[in-house]
Amino acid sequence: MTRVMGIVNVTPDSFSDGGLWLQSDAAIARAESLIEQGADVIDVGGESTRPGSHPVDEATELERTIPVISAVAAKGVEVSIDTTKAAVARAAIDAGATIVNDVSASLENVAASTGAGWIAMHALGDSATMQDDPRYDDVVEDIADFLADAVRRGHAAGVERIWVDPGIGFGKTKQHNLELLANIDRFAQIAPVLVGASRKSVVGQVHAQSDGLLGENPITGSDDRLEGSVGIAVWSAYLGVDMIRVHDVRATVHALSLLKA
Questions:
Q1: Per annotation, catalytic residue among 200, 225, 250, 260
Q2: What is the mean pLDDT of residues 71-88?
Q3: Would you call 172 a catalytic residue per the annotation?
Q4: Max Cα-Cα span within the chain
Q5: What's the gap between Cα 239 and its chain centre?
Q6: What's the CA gap between 198 and 74, in Å, rounded?
Q7: Each residue of 195-210: pLDDT tens digit?
Q8: What DSSP designation does 193 have?
Q9: pLDDT at 219
Q10: DSSP state of 44
Q11: pTM strictly above 0.70
């Protein structure tokens, strides 16, 4: 059964829910709600990686994430830390996290030395510039090669649990994202796959097409992406993806339970 990872962004500027869970109490309550809704893993992040975002310092990221991770891990649910900083990853693991969700695909040594699992994600460039003009010779095979290399590095370092994430929305056009989703089973040939497409712009763009709009609805924005996000989750699970990273846990869990039935 495909597992569901619930998102808790302890940030002021994440693209969908920035600022909603910035205070520790609010973030912990959000995590508790997602657990009740059926989340198998809670992913805690203290730095936005949306296109155009800028990094925060290590101290800020630690202040945002560690109290939340400690509280959530104490509830017995698996916790992942969404970070690109080795020191933050180590502190999060000390606080109870067991997975490093690594947008930079560079923290395999941290995962190996701590016994944590490692999610290696593909991104083209950094957050500030990755959407400027992304190009590939063959988006599926280029990213498959990148992730296969990451898996080799992870195994060489001694990581026991590795997932690959093709990085929907991270340096990709709408067409790139759709090609990756259409061929998501290609990545399952490399390692267990995590898909994180929840509420991303490609969903809004496809919704707008179905509504006969030239662009996304400027009023609803990322809040108008539930149906497509759930559709991607079901499609991904059907093609053998191990884990889906989502904002809307209850709807995703219900949809996946029907697929299982």
A1: 200
A2: 97
A3: no
A4: 52
A5: 18
A6: 27
A7: 999 999 899 888 887 7
A8: B
A9: 43
A10: E
A11: yes
